[in-house]
Inverse folding.
């Protein structure tokens, strides 16, 4: 079984035009796990915390994954794509060479809740054409497990004792570079689950509700709520809920093992490439 090596607590921050959120991975220098660059959780019942949204902004050199739990989020980009993410929907966007887009809430009251994950791309794929896919909730398989546990398979394949289940994400760029696994797991009180993860792939858990212990019975550690738990790199992942239901994300991917130079929404391999990205954006050649 994999062990819990490091805990990265999420911290309150804001992004876009003032959207309040909590950031775990990416919250400080070095707080990332190759190829994962950042994980944000946005969660509020107060419209003032999210109505300003994320007006038009650029990305280059990585992928963004937006997963909605509650609320509606409209997105548009310079390529003419537009859509409306609803509860349970996912957008998997490969920014690659460059994309300019916006993400704006489509409600004036009620809860807005979800996650945005940034996944790096290897140097050979950073300047590929941008593309994205909207995935409706109905296309994401849900596995019902013993004891009332449930697992949504957003990306990758997993066998939790019921046969192999594969998520809807099939980006060629993603599959060739990082082979990601993205699961949303719900555990009733005191229930446990063991999930196989490819040896050598980096993995972490983000516990967004409840209490849970990670690891085998002999070396299990508590993972605080709304924290990312970085795991060792071999074996399956065992998670057990405590006295209340636990809800968590389990993410894993093949590391890229390349230099990472980041300047805001640009993630490249060298400072020169970052400077070129800034110049391309300023001159209007960014996403041409």
């Amino acid at each position: 079984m994999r062990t819990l090596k490091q805990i990265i607590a999420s911290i309150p921050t804001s992004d876009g035009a003032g959207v309040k959120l909590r950031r775990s991975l990416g919250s400080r220098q070095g707080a990332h796990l190759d190829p994962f660059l950042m994980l944000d959780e946005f969660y509020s019942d107060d419209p003032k915390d999210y109505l300003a949204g994320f007006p038009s902004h650029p990305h280059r050199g990585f992928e963004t994954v937006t997963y909605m739990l509650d609320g509606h989020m409209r997105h548009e980009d310079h390529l003419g794509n537009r859509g409306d993410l609803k509860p349970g929907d996912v957008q998997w966007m490969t920014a690659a060479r460059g994309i300019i887009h916006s993400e704006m809430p489509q409600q004036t009251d009620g809860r807005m809740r979800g996650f945005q994950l940034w996944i790096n791309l290897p140097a050979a794929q950073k300047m590929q054409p941008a593309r994205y896919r909207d995935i409706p909730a109905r296309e994401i398989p849900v596995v019902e497990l013993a004891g009332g546990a449930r697992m949504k398979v957003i990306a990758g394949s997993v066998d939790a004792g019921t046969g192999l289940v594969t998520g809807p994400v099939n980006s060629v760029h993603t599959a060739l570079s990082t082979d990601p696994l993205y699961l949303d797991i719900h555990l009733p009180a005191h229930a446990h689950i063991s999930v196989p993860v490819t040896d050598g792939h980096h993995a972490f858990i983000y516990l967004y509700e409840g209490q849970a212990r990670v690891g085998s019975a002999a070396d299990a550690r508590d993972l605080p709520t709304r924290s990312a738990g970085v795991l060792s790199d071999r074996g399956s992942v065992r998670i057990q809920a405590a006295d209340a239901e636990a809800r968590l994300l389990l993410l894993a991917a093949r590391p890229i093992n390349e230099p990472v130079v980041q300047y805001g929404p640009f993630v490249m391999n060298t400072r020169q490439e970052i400077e070129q990205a800034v110049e391309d954006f300023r001159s209007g050649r960014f996403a041409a």
In short: The first helix runs from residue 172 to 177. DSSP finds two helices and 26 strands in the chain. The chain has a mean pLDDT of 92.
